[in-house]
Amino acid sequence: MSAAAPLVEARGLTKHFPTGGGFLSRAKPPVRAVEGVDLTVGAGEVLGVVGESGSGKSTLGRLVLRLLEASGGEVSVDGTDLATLSAGELRAFRRHMQMIFQDPFASLNARMTVREALLEPITLHRGAKGREAEAMAVELMRSVGLTAEQMKRYPRAFSGGQRQRVAIARALASAPRFIVADEPVSALDVSVQAEVVNLLQSLQRDLGLSLMFISHDLSVVEIISDRVMVLYLGRVMEIAPTEALYRAPAHPYTAALLQAIPGARSPGDRMILKGEIPSPTAPPSGCVFRTRCPFAIDDCASTVPTLDEIAPGHQKACIRDDLSL
Amino acid sequence: MARSETLLAERPPALEPGRVLAVRDLQTFFFTEAGVVKAVNGVTLGLAEGETLAIVGESGSGKSVTGLTVMRLLARTSGRVVGGSVAFRSRDGETLDLLALPEAQMQRLRGRDIAMIFQDPMSSLNPMFTVGEQIAESIRIHKGRDRRAARQEALSLLREVGISDPEARIRAYPHQLSGGMRQRVMIALALACGPRLLIADEPTTALDVTIQAQIIALLKDVQQRHRMAMIFITHDLKLVGEVADRVAVMYASQVVEEGPVADVLAAPRHPYTRALLDCIPRRDYDADHTGLKPIPGLLPSPLDPPEGCRFHARCTFAEPRCAAVEPALEAVDAAHDVRCLRWRELSL
């Protein structure tokens, strides 16, 4: 799928958020939200990103779009190093990369009709005016399964699923090549969720979009993704083609996540992780997952595992090669 | 004649031996400015001792309002019970009509006989008091223990719900705990007085899957140990198979199907149940799938439910009569009910 150069390439992405401290108090350790993540998204490829809350997956999505300034590392999109762009250049470049949020209200202005919300990026980024712009807006509405008639309405007049369709239409309005979707269906009822997943999938295929699909829901990620990255405490635990990752997870954390999907296993046959994700201000030494890993050995506390290739395109960060998961 | 009728009406509804709860033809309406929202409209449910009944449905189906009505927690809303009865067997073996009980008596029952946990524990925990104080208070009120004994019981409850280092955590305020930890505290609080019935409303929805697995395991464990019946309200049909013995599927304020979990999930008789199952992404998905199967159309407005079968406009099996005739809940077999005019002829 990504034989050519990837559309999106990130290297060593790191984000530390400072926490308090300052004038008179001693500096506190920062929140290490993302720690040295490499990733690529090929043209027309869907990269799924999964992890629990606190895994850094949303932060990673924002770093890749440079909606957040990274503490380290670099991102290039279609050969352009985002860090080299001035603020103005970045704004213009944003037409190529868009974001869809869990809450569509986050990307829709409540005081703008859907028509206005769509025309803005169409005129700004595609230079279309008047009837031409109007026709593009209608076409966008149709592509997400809504009618031209509905363009007159305000976002609040739509149901949750329709509103997410509007947010998708707006994200597509600038004809981007890359979209980061952060939990786009998590707030929706299952019947509506299925519609929006199908819509995203067909748009992605028809338009050849590159998509970074961030979700805590492994079942949805499996359906839509070509490859899946598993994050824990801001580090990549495993990354693999979807089929390989779900059939034969190589990292204990991936295995635990998969087994925790309701209905995936009989509960007695399930690895239930102890405890909770540790604080990102004080991540464990060595492997960050070791405090919850049922397979941890002494070495795990002292050795930081590297992300090693175990099969083509399949990498895992775990020093234990003797596990059958 | 008139007199005997009154007596009949005042007699608490009957409850068969071995049953803890029987909800009959419950109707809870909300009187809003926009109109009357018939949130629960003719719901009938039963629960045996020690049994878990899952109520599954999408948002607005009426599943949560059903739970709140049984707990009589609608007082501060515009919701009113318009009809039906809720028979409950108290720990003293007495059958009570919860809807007719004076509030003071209901208050004694809440916590002691019936407890409820919610999706967001912060909404039921008091931010001003430590976790230990809140559990101990409940034990003092309902079981009449002194401070010392209550604290000891609180400690052992925290231990039972898997809270590590309970001696330290008992002094924590709710905001100092993680989401999973708070839900454990809520469960400890619910268990404090050994209720016969626990109503759990989406208790794991806000949690990560790994924490959800922990909480589900914990709930099942305490349920068995305390021989407690449970109503598990959820939107997640996948969870139902893991927690429940029986499942009631709700759609647009009504139960459309009810039966043993294994039967309903493997061989649903209502087209809505089938449709819900089909739009869930599942691990046994075949590789050349053609996408998820969404349910066409939208949930009907609760202000203006459709005539006939409430699902007919979205149902792939609907016939003209489905838009006109309201189906009754019919028995497929002794344990399995369905509300569909066509259930006999459909193979789903």
UniProtKB/TrEMBL annotation, chain A:
Gene3D superfamilies: P-loop containing nucleotide triphosphate hydrolases (3.40.50.300)
Keyword list, A-Z: ATP-binding, Nucleotide-binding, Transport
Chief place where the protein resides: membrane
Keyword ATP-binding annotated: yes
UniProt membrane topology term: Peripheral membrane protein
Single GO MF annotation: ATP binding
GO biological process: peptide transport; transmembrane transport
Keyword Metal-binding: no
Compartments where found: Cell inner membrane
Domain spans labelled ABC transporter: 8-258
A cellular component term, taken from the record's GO annotations: plasma membrane
Pfam families xref list: ABC_tran (PF00005), oligo_HPY (PF08352)
PANTHER family noted in UniProt: D,D-DIPEPTIDE TRANSPORT ATP-BINDING PROTEIN DDPF-RELATED, TRANSPORT ATP-BINDING PROTEIN
NCBIfam families according to UniProt: oligo_HPY
Family: Belongs to the ABC transporter superfamily.
Name by which UniProt lists this protein: ATP-binding cassette domain-containing protein
Automatic annotation (TrEMBL), chain B:
GO terms of molecular function: ABC-type nickel transporter activity; ATP binding; ATP hydrolysis activity
Superkingdom, natural source: Bacteria
NCBIfam families reported in the protein's UniProt record: oligo_HPY (TIGR01727)
Residues covered by the ABC transporter domain: 23-277
Annotated organism of origin: Acuticoccus mangrovi
Catalytic activity field: Ni(2+)(out) + ATP + H2O = Ni(2+)(in) + ADP + phosphate + H(+)
Topological type in the membrane: Peripheral membrane protein
GO biological process: peptide transport
EC number from the UniProt entry: 7.2.2.11
Family, as annotated: Belongs to the ABC transporter superfamily.
Compartments, as annotated in UniProt: Cell inner membrane
Protein name (database record): Nickel import system ATP-binding protein NikD
Record text on subunit structure and interactions: The complex is composed of two ATP-binding proteins (NikD and NikE), two transmembrane proteins (NikB and NikC) and a solute-binding protein (NikA).
Matches recorded under Pfam families: ABC_tran, oligo_HPY
Keywords, in A-Z order: ATP-binding, Cell membrane, Ion transport, Membrane, Nucleotide-binding, Translocase, Transport
